[in-house]
Design a protein that fits this description.
Layout (H helix, E strand, L loop, with lengths): L1 H34 L3 H5 L6 H12 L5 H13 L4 H13 L2 H11 L1 H25 L2 H13 L15 H6 L1 H33 L3 H5 L10 H17 L7 H10 L3 H9 L5 H11 L1 H28 L11 H5 L6 H23 E3 L6 E3 L4 E5 L2 E5 L2 H9 L1 H4 L8 H5 L1
Antiparallel strand pairs: 1-2, 3-4
Helix pairs in contact: 1-6, 1-10, 1-18, 3-5, 4-5, 4-8, 5-7, 6-7, 6-13, 7-14, 7-16, 10-13, 10-18, 12-14, 12-16, 13-14, 14-16, 15-16
């Protein structure tokens, strides 16, 4: 019980360390998603060459950092004609080039890791585009597209289609409602990942550095330790089942435990090949395509980790001082700037969630909160139901009895969530 208590305490302290960054990061991401039009970019992603890949990268960087959302949107883009290279570039950008991820990395590991994450994301996209045809033939890509067109589409986050100016958006409650609903949607998708990440980091921290000595090569001549670490990093990520921002706390513990700079990077990059996501690839695209893009991603993650490590080593940017102690990683609760920022974070979090309660309604199919003034609707049994997407409205119309709450019964959407 003492070990469990210390694990929970360390998990809380790490969450306290980055709470304000998570809130402000997600808020900025929600503003970008709600106020930056994406329709024109989406129409430009078909075809090959650097332009569609660059546009997909920009769209991904402006999207949610949720790995599951990234692969759902990438699949939708792929269905609409985007190339496999563009769809994968969107996934890499959405999970490696977003604001909130860099901010949390900076706080827990330092600015060098934030810079390396962003550079590494671009390197992975370039490597993926260069190596794609070694893994995926045009014929297999088209078969995967046909398979994706028959797969369950689910729902996505979309940017608001408002013609307001930026000044009008800042003063408009409706525009901030778009932000709030994107903010709430991202938290709903990610809170489990983030929580598991903190809990896992707190638990692993109790093992001590001796545990890591059995995982990582020490004392051997370079490049053996770096090569071993850059392979072990993704394997730990795959087996931990934690992706997106949720793997940053564990990365901090691994760095404290002795893994190399390249190993940390490859671990962070590997959030798109954790086991649950590999199974989703199989569902979306078929076994053959899923296996090949999984192998392609693993290769690009390892090569990108080595490339960025080599570049940073050349520029003397790899941290060389003593590794952070457990106290440095997990911090403490004190009257300082973190207390002020965390209180502000609580205020922002509460205000945006309050706005979704005031203006929102729950989609009975997926449980997503949507703005009632802009939602798609359907009449049934004398009541009007609101939906986040045409997919959810169609699912409801086909089987309304499955989603309508019986008198005095439990909300079906909430039960499924």
């Amino acid at each position: 019980m003492d070990v469990v208590w210390h694990a929970l305490r360390d998990a809380f302290l790490m969450a306290w360390e980055v709470w304000w960054a998570l809130v402000f990061g997600f808020a900025i991401s929600a503003i970008v998603q709600a106020w930056v039009p994406r329709e024109r970019i989406e129409r430009s992603l078909a075809g090959s060459g650097p332009k569609p890949i660059a546009l997909a990268t920009a769209l991904g960087a402006a999207s949610s950092s949720c790995s599951y959302a990234a692969i759902a949107i990438a699949k939708s883009l792929f269905q609409k004609g985007a190339s496999a290279a563009s769809a994968l570039a969107f996934q890499f950008a959405s999970t490696n080039l977003v604001w909130e991820l860099g901010l949390v990395l900076w706080i827990l590991l330092g600015w060098q890791f934030t810079l390396a994450e962003y550079i590494g994301g671009i390197v992975m996209i370039a490597l993926m585009a260069a190596l794609l045809r070694l893994f995926v033939s045009p014929r297999l890509e088209e078969r995967a597209r046909e398979h994706a067109l028959t797969a369950d589409t689910g729902h996505e986050h979309h940017a608001a289609s408002s013609e307001m100016s930026w000044r009008e958006r800042v003063t408009s409650v409706a525009a901030w409602s778009d932000v709030a609903h994107n903010f709430r949607g991202d938290w709903k998708m990610l809170w489990k990942e983030i929580s598991i990440g903190f809990l896992l980091a707190g638990a692993v921290a109790q093992f001590g550095n001796g545990f890591f000595s059995s995982l990582f090569v020490h004392g051997a001549a370079e490049p053996i330790p770096t090569l071993e670490n850059v392979v072990v990093g993704p394997l730990i990520a795959v087996l931990s089942f934690v992706c997106s921002i949720g793997n940053v706390p564990l990365a901090a513990v691994l760095w404290s435990g002795g893994i190399s700079f390249a190993g940390v990077l490859s671990f962070l990059f590997a959030d798109l090949i954790v086991l649950p996501i590999l199974l989703i690839y199989r569902k979306y695209y078929g076994t053959g395509f899923a296996a090949r893009i999984g192998a392609l991603m693993l290769v690009t993650m390892i090569l990108a980790g080595l490339a960025v490590d080599g570049l940073f080593n050349l520029l003397n940017l790899i941290p060389t001082g003593p590794r952070p102690s457990r106290g440095d990683v997990f911090g403490s609760v004190e009257v300082d700037y973190k207390l002020v920022l965390n209180v502000l974070g609580i205020g922002v979090f509460g205000a945006l969630f309050w706005l979704t309660r005031r203006r929102g309604v729950t989609d009975p199919v997926c449980g997503m909160r949507v703005d009632r003034a802009k939602a798609l609707t359907h009449e049934h049994g004398g009541r009007t139901y609101a939906f986040c997407s045409e997919h959810c409205r169609h699912a409801f119309a086909a089987e309304p009895e499955r989603y309508v709450r019986p008198p005095g019964g439990r909300d079906p959407a909430r039960a499924r969530a």
